[in-house]
Amino acid sequence: MRRTFSQVGAFAVFLAASLVCCSWAWSAPVVVDTFSTVNPWNVYQTFTAPGTVQSNVSGAGILGQRDVTIGAPGLVNGGDFLGIGTADFGSLTGQGVLDLNLNANTNSAITLNYDNFGVMNFSGDLGIGLDILAYNNGSVQTQNQIILTTTTGLLTASAITFPNVPPGSMIFLIPFASFTGPGSLSSVTGIQFIFNSNNSSGFDITLDGIQVLATPEPSSLLAWVSVLAAGWFARRRFQKAKA
Q: Nearest-5° angle of CA 180, CA 145, CA 134?
């Protein structure tokens, strides 16, 4: 009995070590936006016409400069609002977020554009990660789009759909492998996000941040594979002992 317990315990340690190695295996991400630069919290609740509501915002937590544009028919009074910055209400106190809520009669798209950060090389990186705090599809399945501007053309990921996310947190990955077009990931000069690109009414999203996720570092990945191999042999021994 003691031997079985020891082997089970060793396998549990293996699982824990695997998780730790997984967490070490990733390079530091490139932060696109933490939504914490604008303080106090800005709410654009009475914006009723299409156009840019925020232009050339820069600072800590923003890659280059950020522009925010609302598409037709714009926001209307009566339940619609767009907030960007350090929130100071409810569970979001002191947290940098972008919060967009549309009522059942409003079907605006919102565009976030990032540029003026020079030329960045994302080749070999995993993709773009959205830290979603809450999400609710509109009247129809909401679609979203990401466009990378590069020195050789555009790379586009279209018809991106998210699952409904109850209040909490989820990192949603859009792999660079899903982007198409003549552009090159080695020379990115701009990033554009179009949320609700198919104009679904009643669309809601709360974002805590946007980042570019790197691929595993070779040395860390080798260590992780070594732990997995050791765990496999430990598990085989455990199974033989039970037989």
A: 135
Q: At what angle do helices 2-24 and 218-242 cross, to 10 degrees?
A: 160
| Of the candidates 209, 205, 36, 211, the residue with the CA atom closest to the CA atom of residue 122 | 211
The pLDDT of residue 80: 84
Query: For the whole model, what pTM was predicted?
Result: 0.78
- 107 and 183 assigned to the same domain: yes
- Please state, in angstroms and rounded to a whole number, the distance separating the CA atoms of residues 179 and 125: 13
CA 102 – CA 177 distance, rounded (Å): 31
Could you give the CA distance from residue 66 to residue 85 in angstroms, rounded to a whole number?
12
Nearest to 160 by CA among 135, 190, 186, 182: 135
Q: Per residue in 131-182, pLDDT tens? A: 999 888 888 889 999 999 999 999 999 999 988 887 777 899 999 999 999 9
Q: Which residue has the higher pLDDT, 14 or 58?
A: 58
Residue 238 belongs to domain spanning: 1-26+216-243
Nearest to 195 by CA among 123, 101, 118, 87: 101
DSSP secondary-structure letter at 47? -
Q: Is 15 helix (H, G, I), strand (E, B) or coil?
A: helix
Token pair, residue 214, equals 């790197």
Residues 143 and 224 in one domain: no
* Kind of pairing between the strands at 153-160 and 144-150: antiparallel
pLDDT of residue 146: 98
Give yes or no: residues 166 and 230 share one domain: no
Query: Within 10 A of 161 (CB to CB), how many other CB atoms are there?
Result: 10
* Least confident range of 21-25, 113-117, 208-212: 21-25
